[in-house]
């Protein structure tokens, strides 16, 4: 394979600020391990992780569906917006050979999910964990950031 061909077939992943809660799952590190070129948005907040990525040798990188939830209409509106954007971008850029993929992993144990559990538990007068446990997947647990890293790596 020529150098030009090798360069033109590199896979690229764009990571947005929406993935901030699952940074600890090392999505960027996993994708770099798999040979992807990374594009990161919201760079000021990602600076420490970028520094770690730069200093880490590359060789070391190693359904159940829920509907909407009350009091989270804006969150679910953004999920549907990402779905529409993914579909439209696929049509727009597919003719140039780009593949566009989006993912919505469901409940992933992040600080945000813990805060939501605390909020809803207080609101409903229930013990902590009641709300969050309603969203377990078919394996009987919520997702982990590492699960998302594996999924994204597989998709790209």
From TrEMBL:
> Biological process GO terms, please?
fatty acid biosynthetic process
A Pfam family it matches: adh_short_C2
Gene Ontology MF term list: oxidoreductase activity, acting on the CH-OH group of donors, NAD or NADP as acceptor; quinone binding
Similarity annotation = Belongs to the short-chain dehydrogenases/reductases (SDR) family.
Protein name according to UniProt = NAD(P)-binding protein
Organism in which the protein naturally occurs: Polyporus arcularius HHB13444
